Amino acid sequence: MAFAVRSVDKALLNFQSFLSVSQKTEKVIWEKADTKVAIFFINDIEFQLCESLKDNGRFSEWIEKYGEGLHHICYEVDDIKKVLEHAEKHNARLRKCDACNVYGSHPHPEGFVAFLDDEVAGTEIEFMQVYTEEELKKYKVTGV
Ligand SMILES: [Zn+2]
To answer: Which member of 129, 130, 137, 141 has the greatest number of CB atoms within 10 A?
Structure first.
């Protein structure tokens, strides 16, 4: 699950102080998306703290509207096409990936991703089909 935060440094410090998240947690920059991110696990759930590095970034715009908080939940799936077909059959709306300007399934660094609009309890849904070894070689360079 991904949280939109104003400051990754500050938010991470709170997770480390209150929830014993590892002091070794690294912060990375996603260049194409102009986003600074800290990634860590609590139990088996991956947490991402996301800070836009520009004012009109995906997360800073979201914070302007809603304040800091849960931005989206990513579900790892085995077959993204099947999952999207199922969701669309039930009238789900796809959301554009702002970084890539694409609707529906498309390659990102770790796998194929697609976004649904915020119809599920007001939270954006991301699906990810993690690459096989072969797909990883093919798509790794082209993603966000
Ligand atoms: Zn994308």
So the answer is: 129
For 15-73, write each residue's pLDDT tens digit: 999 999 999 999 999 887 899 999 999 988 999 999 999 989 989 999 999 899 999 99
Enter the pTM of the model: 0.80
Say if residue 62 is in the same domain as residue 102: no
Query: Which residues are placed with Cβ below 5 angstroms of ligand 1, an ion?
Result: 97, 99-100
Domain of 13, CATH number, reads 3.10.180.10
Amino acid at 36: K
Residues 114, 61: one domain? no
- Which among 87, 71, 91 has a CA at the least distance from the CA of 79? 87
Distance, CA 110 to ligand 1 centroid (Å)?
11
